[in-house]
Design brief:
Elements: E1 23-37, E2 52-63, E3 68-80, E4 86-101, H1 105-134, H2 147-165
Antiparallel strand pairs: 1-4, 2-3, 3-4
């Protein structure tokens, strides 16, 4: 009797080399959508008030073929004055096409939702900073994002929703 399963890579995606190390390759990366709104210009520049900035982040992924996946990192940042007046809104989606090899199926979603956006984030951060600077505001430098924390929270929420429906 052996402790080794009969087929240790039974859960590996088709075409995966069962003895090779996991691999993540960026095949392409690109700005998919970018919008900057400055609705109160030029009056917004007459005030020195410090805005309240809200940032929302979303990650989406989809399979393109057996081993290639598109992952989109979306950011929406809104700066509002204390009275609620909008100073600026920047919305951007930065995406990449990734080749993911030799990763077990049960870990594939985690790689797509954590590792891929982690590689895209520095480029998204620069895009948002440039957009706000080009709108005559100080560059908005996004803080590092805990993609693993977001992934775990979303997975827990899905489990709770599934348990509530059962």
């Amino acid at each position: 009797m052996s402790d080794t399963p009969a087929n240790p890579n039974a859960n590996a995606p088709e075409g995966a080399d069962q003895n090779a190390a996991p691999s993540l390759t960026v095949l392409a990366q690109y700005t998919k959508d970018l919008s900057f709104e400055n609705p109160r210009a030029p009056a917004v520049y007459q005030s020195n008030s410090t805005p309240k900035i809200d940032v929302n982040v979303d990650v989406q992924g989809r399979a393109l073929n057996d081993n290639q996946y598109e992952v989109e990192l979306s950011v929406a940042a809104r700066a509002n004055r204390e009275n609620g007046d909008s100073m600026f809104v920047v919305e951007a989606t930065y995406a990449g096409v990734f080749e993911i090899l030799n990763v077990p199926r049960e870990q594939l979603e985690m790689v797509m939702m954590v590792e891929c956006p982690r590689l895209l984030f520095p480029f998204m951060r620069q895009i948002v900073a440039d957009a706000t600077r080009n709108g005559n505001f100080p560059p908005l430098m996004l803080e590092p994002i805990d993609f693993m924390g977001i992934y775990v929270a979303n997975a827990q929420r899905r489990e709770q929703q599934a348990a509530g429906q059962a």
